[in-house]
């Protein structure tokens, strides 16, 4: 993939490599566990896992648009939106991604796709109604920074691995409930079957928990990284800060039902969609706090003002 003018982030690159290495080790051990304890199931599990991973990787853009009810729009349908994307691509020396719009009042945006040539940037109608062009440029530069840093593809794979742990747990439970852990001659007793079931559940839960924590930590850092890169590229950190403040503030006015529908996709959104009141998701957020993001943008603004 060609380099862009978005500032490289060695810290993000290192974190992505470490996260994928640890997740890789974790899942090699996980598959090894199934080979040892559930020998009749591991081939099926491996085939399904590889199949799902390939679909997720190569069709992540289409799956994301379908799940979030987005549709690709032409320049004739959304000339102003395309114009902002064109300016950012010219500044960053990146190929233009496909441009999509999701018809929802939840103010947000996301980028997806395995590389720059297959990327799509989607904004919601709620975001377009609330932001001016300068603020919108900051948000879209943030999303294109994700594409330039390749963290979209990494998050897609990392998120899939967490889903896989849940699928394996379900397969293991169903196999055990139907006697899959017993031999054909039923020599194993119910107690040993129950023990294997408990081991499957425990190992799967542990794998899911570790995957969850690793991806959340990476997700929070990558958001700060995209904010930095977007602010430095556009030279207008205050516009991005204004957009963040507007979007976060307006989340409280969105119906709870709509926010809950959007929450599963928070890892890919510009700003998290939290339902009103306290939520367990605020404890393990996919994004850093608004204060952290605004503080970083204020520092960048001061540095640009001093010509640093």
Features:
308 residues; 6% strand; four-stranded mixed β-sheet; mainly alpha; 11 helices
What are the SSEs and their pairings?
Layout: H1 10-37, H2 42-58, H3 60-67, E1 70-72, H4 79-92, E2 98-102, E3 109-112, E4 120-124, H5 125-130, H6 133-149, H7 151-177, H8 190-234, H9 237-251, H10 256-262, H11 290-306
Parallel strand pairs: 2-4
Antiparallel strand pairs: 1-2, 3-4
Helix pairs in contact: 1-7, 1-8, 2-7, 4-6, 6-8, 6-9, 7-8, 8-9, 8-11, 9-11
Could you estimate the helical fraction of the residues in percent? 55-70%
- Number of DSSP-assigned strands: 4
Rg, Cα atoms, Å = 22 Å
Reported for the largest beta sheet, the result is: 4 strands, mixed
Series of secondary-structure elements, N-terminal to C-terminal: HHHEHEEEHHHHHHH
Q: State the distance separating the first and last CA atoms.
A: 30 Å
User: Order of strands across the biggest sheet?
Assistant: 1-2-4-3
Number of helices: 11
Task: Bin the strand percentage.
Answer: 5-15%
Which ranges are low-confidence, i.e. pLDDT below 50, for 5 or more consecutive residues?
181-188
Average of the residue pLDDT scores? 81
Classification by helices and strands: mainly alpha
Shape: elongated
